[in-house]
Amino acid sequence: MLNRFRLRPLRCLGLLPRCAALGAVAGLGPLPLAPLLAPAPARAEQPKEQPELRLGAIPDQKPEKLNRLYPLVAKQLGQQLGVKVTYVPVVDYAAAVGAFRTGNLDLVWFGGLTGVQARLQKPGAKVIAQRDIDVSFHSIFIASTRSGLKPISNQKQLAELKGKRFTFGSESSTSGRLMPQYFLAQAGVKLADFAGGAPGFSGSHDTTIALVSSGAYDAGVVNEQVWRTSLHDGKANRAKVIPIWKSPGYPDYHWVAQGDLDARFGKGFTAKLQRAILSWRPSDPEQKQILALFGAQQFTAADAAAYGRIEQVGRQIGKIR
Hints:
The chain is an alpha/beta fold.
């Protein structure tokens, strides 16, 4: 009898009371009915993972300064927006543009050229803000005091740099390469006119100042804000390096955001992000520190159309195709 029930267990599925009785006859005791009748436990709903705002910036200065500034920016935006904001460092200018194109960065502090490149590669991207000093930014041509070069009074005198050892900053820098190359060309100076038949590319403004100060290069070009900061901090020594020419103004750095932030973070998020950045003031201690590291008093609204000139020059020198 016991073997017969073991061989045909499925026959009891529709006859639960009878199975219980048969189990008792077989000496197994009554079959428990509760587990067979109870509904399957409901699955606990998993909480939705909150989206994270990934912040990036072109590495235009030394890593130690970037690693002081952008975690502060991430913390401030996180507090104002109520979302997790994480700073993601990148190795160079091209990596910043690439990470924005692939969606690995949501909000990036770009220079004029890299911002244009990023927006061309990611339609729908939005210009959020620029510093007060970016409406009319300037490049400063600098020279080693060993070079014999002196300050010049007009752009045509940039021709004096022919035959000199000259370095730009990053190849994709607006203030350290793009616009300086444009101004040099207007003065009749081609890249092949420099000593060795080509300029150097230091990679960052800080490095350019250090190389020219050491005499490794006779001259170079940096952005005005970094030059002023270096003088203030004592990192630029006028006994070793001097400014020789200040360029005309042009639009430069700006915040650029992905176009899908409202879809990911909620309606109106992009506008809220812009308001947060525009609200920073020196009267707030944390915001004051951020603005000081940016070399600005505040951020202002920016118009993407203002960067049309940057795009035009970028195409002329082959940095935008």
